[in-house]
Amino acid sequence: xxxxxxxxxxxxxxxxxxxxxxxxxxxxxxxxxxxxxxxxxxxxxxxxxxxxxxxxxxxxxxxxxxxxxxxxxxxxxxxxxxxxxxxxxxxxxxxxxxxxxxxxxxxxxxxxxxxxxxxxxxxxxxxxxxxxxxxxxxxxxxxxxxxxxxxxxxxxxxxxxxxxxxxxxxxxxxxxxxxxxxxxxxxxxxxxxxxxxxxxxxxxxxxxxxxxxxxxxxxxxxxxxxxxxxxxxxxxxxxxxxxxxxxxxxxxxxxxxxxxxxxxxxxxxxxxxxxxxxxxxxxxxxxxxxxxxxxxxxxxxxxxxxxxxxxxxxxxxxxxxxxxxxxxxxxxxxxxxxxxxxxxxxxxxxxxxxxxxxxxxxxxxxxxxxxxxxxxxxxxxxxxxxxxxxxxxxxxxxxxxxxxxxxxxxxxxxxxxxxxxxxxxxxxxxxxxxxxxxxxxxxxxxxxxxxxxxxxxxxxxxxxxxxxxxxxxxxxxxxxxxxxxxxxxxxxxxxxxxxxxxxxxxxxxxxxxxxxxxxxxxxxxxxxxxxxxxxxxx
Length: 538
What we know:
globular, five-stranded antiparallel beta sheet
């Protein structure tokens, strides 16, 4: 949400729209729909200019395989054509590789940030080299880097113009051959009262080791930019030690208050089924140059009661299920009074999925702080009875008057090896007014999304797994709130895929060759996951 023009919204998402239609040989032989996609991007974008009532995904030009035949991988050669993903990556020797996050900040003119100059949209995502294999060499060392795309003053007239986007910039250039960047988030200091107004911050989980044992090298990095994203300075904010005894930390979130204090949250994961971890907080009072020591502030149960024996992922709906690895991650927002900062309360709200009540009783919990994260309210359950939330996100009005909550949830119990019974799934959008102390009053449900079946989903690279992504998002102005989630109500369950999943789950490994070919063995709507929005705007 653009704090200066709150009716303007942007959303990023993984989109396989430009990939080769699922090749038969890849599907049946390897259980994947990964085709001939060298140079083809994955980072989709959509815009709304009416407070989330309607959205449009623009079409640009770039490298595509969308019109290739689906007979075989070898039958496709990626080429220039229409794309539904970010532009200017292939032209700059890069590939947009998804896992996106977006933020709006003020535009910089003649060295100064001001809302009078308009707004700048920042879109961060994983990025790779156009013609490289893993690990990469140049221009990116390691596995994947973080790239940022930028657009100034998006409008209904210019958002579909490729030239409205600046060329992507690599945020994380100084990495090793074993470095893997993941789960990045972005925030622009959007309150004019801040001494660091206009600064942009990107937090990222950085994995530095190929080790497969109980210990490995992993840390949190924060990159900051003071020139509108042209250049970036990286800062390691905690030690890189991670092991089974101490746990590891990741899945970050980053925000600023009206005084320019930067708040970095991430999950302190612990080993176990489930893992009993915490939300960790670090703060910077000098624009991201230095950081306080990590401090665990809120306990969190990661609800990982079951690990799929084939995918190795935490799952909640049943065998071959959708991963819930980040269910307990902190999703945070601050009432910083943007765009001016004048009416800020600086209340912090944090929402997450939690398994403390046991399997089949997962909930969304919410806690808030009015003293800069020093103390927190007792976590309260804010999801509806009967829902089993996977991912959750809050948004607080800039003046601290209301809070909104977006979450996606399962509606059926754990199915285990049962691949034939329904696995209901939907999105929920809620609202509560905040009282003078910052506590939410009664919650009202603004939208109950259409019910789908999560078995109808899959990631393009693996037919065995279900997948609805790793995030939901929410944003709020003084007058309305909006949320986005991955919706499966238009997707169809494929019996042949369920048979393959059942056989693989029973065998403890993917049964290959012999996986189904979705193009011929499934309805055309198998895997048809949509990104939907809920808005309270009238």
